[in-house]
């Protein structure tokens, strides 16, 4: 039986969208039927990289695109501050939505998106691809199964040459960036921490340095979870090189350490051992997963709206704590 035909459109066709474009166009019976982006340069580069025909219509305005092309689904890969408007307009137009991270930039917007998803019954998936990566799935399975006991402490660190590389660009504009590095690359770290642990943050104490720009660059943040587990997060947006991350989870009976993409497991008094890759679950592509979700081939949404809400709840609490100069309770209502 041939697969359900799906028409896709893109809102935001910059650097990141091209990877989505290649993945989407490689799936059987899926066609990219329209693109929306105010930048001619981005539209042309997208078409060229993804190998799209010149006849695919392009629009500067996403509302015009939605009403003319009537796609079944959209991929949103625009500046963070525009995600809310783009998501709501796409859902109102009856489209399933695959939005890039962060889903939105305020708790209020996240709740409105959640209500709209419930009202329309459409799928919304977020581009936090770590949920589909073998190493993080392994970490989540170990923590959730309890095989190494309860979690006592977690430390996560991320560094990136973000302050210099993004100077004068939309990511350092308070509205378009929707915050600074904490809600940009840092949002991946917050998301995966909450997903691996599946615990609720109770209290957060953050110290933030914006350096000489309007948004956060450096964040030192401590969290106490409802289970009693403690956590330190370092977001270093003023470093050299691309994204580097370490993630350590200390449990009652052992530990997991993820460093430079390599995963180590330590049991009680043993030494940390590299986890054999053949023991890891399979990774999946997020665009393929989104298409499977729409087609009913995947029953569970791997990165749903609740994930986007809890990330911004913790992020807003961290911003508030830094402003007040004291620990704050995380509002999860
Ligand atoms: N999941 C990941 O690992 C990952 C990696 C990189 C980027 N991203 C995310 O992808 C998104 C885009 O980031 P990027 O690196 O491609 O940035 P980019 O600057 O390369 O692309 C953004 C595009 O949005 C377009 N745009 C601006 N205003 C618009 C509007 N009103 N309507 C439609 N398009 C508009 C710009 O012209 C540009 O082409 C962000 O949400 C970012 O966080 C995710």
Roughly how much helix do the residues carry, as a percent range?
25-40%
Mean pLDDT metric: 97
Percent strand equals 15-25%
Full CATH superfamily name of the largest domain: Dihydrodipicolinate Reductase, domain 2
Count of strand segments: 15
Can you describe what's shown?
35% of the residues lie in helices and 25% in strands. By secondary structure, the chain is an alpha/beta fold. It folds into two domains: 6-128, NAD(P)-binding Rossmann-like Domain (Rossmann fold, 3-Layer(aba) Sandwich), CATH 3.40.50; 130-282 and 304-329, Dihydrodipicolinate Reductase, domain 2 (2-Layer Sandwich), CATH 3.30.360.10. The strands form two sheets. Strands 14-13-12-11-7-10-9-8-15 form a nine-stranded mixed beta sheet. A six-stranded parallel beta sheet has the order 3-2-1-4-5-6, with helices on both faces. The model has no long low-confidence stretch (mean pLDDT 97). The site of nicotinamide-adenine-dinucleotide has 23 residues, from helix 1.
Which keywords apply here?
333 residues, 11 helices, 2 domains, six-stranded parallel sheet, 35% helix, Dihydrodipicolinate Reductase, domain 2, binds nicotinamide-adenine-dinucleotide, Rossmann fold, alpha/beta
């Amino acid at each position: 039986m041939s697969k359900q035909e799906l028409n896709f459109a893109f809102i935001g066709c910059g650097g990141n969208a091209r990877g989505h474009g290649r993945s989407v166009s490689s799936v059987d019976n899926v066609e990219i039927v329209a693109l929306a982006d105010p930048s001619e340069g981005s539209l042309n580069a997208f078409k060229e990289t993804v190998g799209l025909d010149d006849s695919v219509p392009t629009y500067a305005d996403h509302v015009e695109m939605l009403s003319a092309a009537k796609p079944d689904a959209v991929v949103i890969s625009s500046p963070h501050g525009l995600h809310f408007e783009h998501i709501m307009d796409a859902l109102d137009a009856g489209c399933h939505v695959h939005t890039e991270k962060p889903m939105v930039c305020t708790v209020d917007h996240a709740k409105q998106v959640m209500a709209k998803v419930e009202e329309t019954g459409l799928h919304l998936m977020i581009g936090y691809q770590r949920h589909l990566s073998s190493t993080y799935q392994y970490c989540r399975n170990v923590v959730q199964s309890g095989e190494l006991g309860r979690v006592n402490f977690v430390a996560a660190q991320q560094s990136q040459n973000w302050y210099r590389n993004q100077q004068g660009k939309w990511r350092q504009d308070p509205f378009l960036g929707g915050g600074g590095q904490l809600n940009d690359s840092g949002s991946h770290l917050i998301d995966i921490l909450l997903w691996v642990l599946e615990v609720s943050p109770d209290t957060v104490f953050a110290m933030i340095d914006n350096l000489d720009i309007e948004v956060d660059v450096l964040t030192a943040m401590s969290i106490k979870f409802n289970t009693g587990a403690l956590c330190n997060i370092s977001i270093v947006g003023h470093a050299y090189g691309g994204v580097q991350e370490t993630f350590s989870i200390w449990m009652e009976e052992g530990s997991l350490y993820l460093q430079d993409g390599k995963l180590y497991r330590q049991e009680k008094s043993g030494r940390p051992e590299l986890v054999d890759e053949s023991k890891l679950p399979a990774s999946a592509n997020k665009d393929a997963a989104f298409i499977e979700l729409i087609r009913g081939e995947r029953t569970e949404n791997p990165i749903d709206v609740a994930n986007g809400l809890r990330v911004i709840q913790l992020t807003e609490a961290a911003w508030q704590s830094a402003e007040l100069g004291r620990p704050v309770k995380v509002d999860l209502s």
